[in-house]
Design goal:
Helix content is 42%, strand content 18%.
């Protein structure tokens, strides 16, 4: 089982920011990624629909030889909480790893969270932060356009459309003098520079996907499940919509052209 793959899923391509970190931290591991690009975004769906989609995503990954599953989606993570969708397999979302990192980073006990409307509405980030440090004030702000902007390539540091949206979304967070900001959606690191420019140099940004990758690394060590192969691992990607569109845009998340096979699949309704 050591040489089975790590399964990663997301509503679209944002989870590729977690794959990027996994490739860096665990270069000998195989990664199987599923992006539900036909149904993106999950953030505007009901809790029941998000849970149904997430269960379908997990069942798809479990058809392969998988040793761990990462829900690299802030919306799914906020709906699932501490529950596991993966049965007896190691499983993590992106919220708890990010919360641990943010609580360790804050100096003034004021943490901001930006995410999809579903993530912010759930209040799960605030609940998780309070469970670690009840003295922290949490300020959340929903960013409904960010996923669409990133998925459609509006990611340049000087892109005025994305800058305008970011200023509006970040204003209520910055006003509260936060010193730490959780990027509560795995799409957001792609526009990290824009967010950092607006938040300012005194605000520490926490990437939920990167922290989930670190958690996976430590979990596999703890369970003695690290690959013992000597050669570099491979990435395999599955998407529920256009392969060509995925290949065209995935580089924005990975930081380089797609480095693995990409297949199309369907999960149903």
């Amino acid at each position: 089982m050591k040489n089975y793959a790590i399964g990663v899923f997301d509503s679209g391509m944002g989870g590729l920011t977690a794959v990027k970190e996994l490739n860096t931290l665990l270069p000998n591991e195989d990664i199987i990624y599923f992006g539900d690009t036909a149904r993106v975004p999950y953030g505007s769906r009901s809790r029941e629909t998000v849970l149904k989609y997430a269960q379908q995503d997990v069942e798809f990954l479990k058809k392969h030889k998988i040793k761990m599953i990462i829900a690299a989606c802030g919306t799914v993570s906020s709906v699932v909480g501490t529950s596991s969708l993966a049965g007896d397999l190691p499983f993590t979302g992106v919220i708890h790893p990010a919360v641990q990192a943010a609580c360790a980073a804050t100096r003034n006990n004021r943490i901001g969270v930006i995410g999809t409307p579903a993530t912010i509405k759930s209040g799960y980030y605030a609940k998780a932060i309070k469970s670690v440090n009840p003295h922290v004030k949490v300020i959340g702000s929903a960013c409904p356009l960010f996923v669409h902007l990133v998925e459609n390539g509006y990611i340049q540091r000087d892109n005025q459309i994305t800058i305008l949206a970011a200023k509006e979304y970040l204003e209520p967070v910055i006003r509260e003098n936060v010193d730490t900001l959780i990027l509560g959606c795995t799409h957001y690191p792609v526009i990290r520079d824009i967010i950092a420019d607006i938040a300012g140099p005194d605000v520490t940004l926490i990437s939920s996907g990167a922290e989930a990758a670190k958690y996976a690394y430590n979990s596999l060590i703890e369970k003695n499940l690290l690959s013992d192969r000597e050669e570099k691992g491979k990435n395999t990607f599955y998407v529920s919509d256009s392969v060509s569109l995925f290949e065209e845009n995935a580089g924005n998340f990975l930081g380089h052209p797609v480095n693995g096979d990409v297949f199309s699949c369907s999960l149903g309704d």
